[in-house]
Amino acid sequence: MEEHGLHLLTIESRKKLKLAGVQHVGSFDEQEITLDTNMGFLKLSGEGMHITHLNLDEGNLVVEGLINGLEYVEGRSSKGSKARGKGLINRILK
């Protein structure tokens, strides 16, 4: 897989995740967040997860909550999946 820009993932004490290289957020709730990164599709799982910072222009994302797992999945995109419930902007502004 070709590398396209910076891709950096940091987890602090399983309670805060910082990610550089985010291109699109597909869906999110307190148990699962799906997103496209410059290194492929990424699925985060956990408990009480909330997106506290999102800047798609810079490709940065910060998630707080209990991080239980993350999985990169080849050949999949969050853009094709339908978000559960409200649109992304409505859910962030909730």
From TrEMBL:
<dbReference type="GO" id="GO:0030435">
    <property type="term" value="P:sporulation resulting in formation of a cellular spore"/>
</dbReference>
<dbReference type="Pfam" id="PF07873">
    <property type="entry name" value="YabP"/>
</dbReference>
<dbReference type="InterPro" id="IPR022476">
    <property type="entry name" value="Spore_YabP/YqfC"/>
</dbReference>
<dbReference type="InterPro" id="IPR038705">
    <property type="entry name" value="YabP_sf"/>
</dbReference>
<dbReference type="InterPro" id="IPR012504">
    <property type="entry name" value="Spore_YabP"/>
</dbReference>
<protein>
    <submittedName>
        <fullName>Sporulation protein YabP</fullName>
    </submittedName>
</protein>
